[in-house]
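Subgroup meeting minutes
Present: P.N., E.W., G.H.
Scribe: E.W.

1. P.N. recapped why we're keeping a running log of single-chain structure predictions: easier to compare across weeks, and new members can see raw inputs and outputs side by side.
2. G.H. added today's entry (232 aa).
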Amino acid sequence: MSLFDCLTSKQPVAISIFSGAFRGATLVLDPAHSKRKILGLYEHILNPWLQDILPTVEVLWDVGANDGYFTYGCAHTMQKYQGCGYVVAFEPGLADQLGLMQPAEWLQYQATTFEFVPQFVGTSCDGQTVTLDQAWGDRPSLQAKRSLVKVDVEGAEVEVLQGAASLLQAPHHWVVEVHGDHLLEPVLQHFANAQRAVEVIPYRPHWLLGSEARTIKTSWIVTQPDSSKSIS
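Output recorded in log:
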């Protein structure tokens, strides 16, 4: 199927990302709503940061996996640079994301281990919700591996970070999508408490495609390399 055919398909299709940090990753996307993802230009302002840190990443903690754009984008790059990878994907709406788990069975991702967790991530562990610290503590074999923690939880960023005090102290990379300026300072405070150096990346329209359809002002907080912290 050509790129044109994929972009004009009326139903979800398996398609490889065309460019950007996740170029070559294949997943199931609905072209009617995912053209920027297919082109590798969704949240395009993160591409330079991702291209800088992904060559060292061995584990992805994907909080808010949604359709799997980060899930399989990172799985592809981990296999490219490390030869293998590990993904822990949290998606409480797993039953509604019919295409999320499907690519995990494909030959392309045979060197990656996937865990799909149908729970919210927050401040407590009660069956429906789990904290990142609990999930991290339950997987000691992953703790010494260089990780990327991606958080996209539609306004519940502070709750996720409140349950991640220990993980924040570890020398792993984070990217947190912040939904609204009112959450920016509370999120930044959690990183400051953990003495983590971060950068705020504001949303900018793409020079050619213009603005994405967003209902609230969005920015991203990303960690910066910290030579004072290392994984032993």
